[in-house]
Amino acid sequence: MAKLYFYYASMNAGKSTTLLQADFNYRERGMRTLLFTAGIHDRGGKGVIDSRLGISATAVPFEEVTDLRRVAEDEHYKSPLACILVDEAQFLSPVQVRQLAHLADEVGIPVLCYGLRTDFQGALFPGSAELLALADSLVEIKSVCECGRKATMNLRVDAEGNAVRQGEQREVGGNERYVALCRRHFMQRTA
Ligand SMILES: Nc1ncnc2c1ncn2[C@@H]1O[C@H](COP(=O)(O)OP(=O)(O)O)[C@@H](O)[C@H]1O
Ligand SMILES: Cc1cn([C@H]2C[C@H](O)[C@@H](COP(=O)(O)O)O2)c(=O)[nH]c1=O
Ligand SMILES: [Zn+2]
Fold first, then answer.
1. 119 in ligand 2 pocket by Cβ < 6 Å?
2. Which parts of the sequence bind substrate (predicted)?
3. Which of 45, 47, 86, 129 is the most exposed place for a label (fewest CB within 10 A)?
4. Hey, is 158 helix, strand or coil?
5. Is the ipTM of this complex over 0.90?
């Protein structure tokens, strides 16, 4: 029975690395996979899943209107897919999460999604909320705050390192723009 998985973490926790390791394990054994990443997330290039460790892979970039079910079914019926892996899953729409659930439930392909739970204001991304509601398995990838506690929040900072409290939910960036913190320090920094 195929399942829908949500591997979630703060930024810079190893999500993309874990995805790429899982993908390699399938492909090393001759099994076919399909990778998706958010088109907006072009930090390593559009349609590229890149890890801070330096490994990367090409992926199908998804936009708000992309029908993931149709893309995956077209590929699957050309040649069976053993697994679908989605990076930057926080950028999925709720409808796209349900498309992925259909692929697991009705087409029988395991779907592994990797992404953030919450944004720079501590609010759930819509796609993440849908995954938290629907996924069969919720797996936390752990990382640490500068204080040693588990990092669960994502602080957006300006060039001087000051907290940014207002703005658009979607803003692509890396370690220069975001810092993963524990709840205690996130609340202190954004108070
Ligand atoms: N030079 C390095 N040596 C070892 N591990 C590293 C190095 N640089 C980054 N990492 C590890 O990679 C993690 C970030 O991996 P990445 O897949 O880019 O994270 P995410 O996708 O969650 O943002 C860091 O938390 C750290 O553990
Ligand atoms: C907190 C937060 C993050 N983002 C963006 C910034 C990056 O492009 C991705 C996460 O990248 P990761 O290193 O692979 O975790 O999400 C955003 O748009 N809005 C936010 O609030
Ligand atoms: Zn802390």
1. yes
2. 178
3. 45
4. coil
5. yes
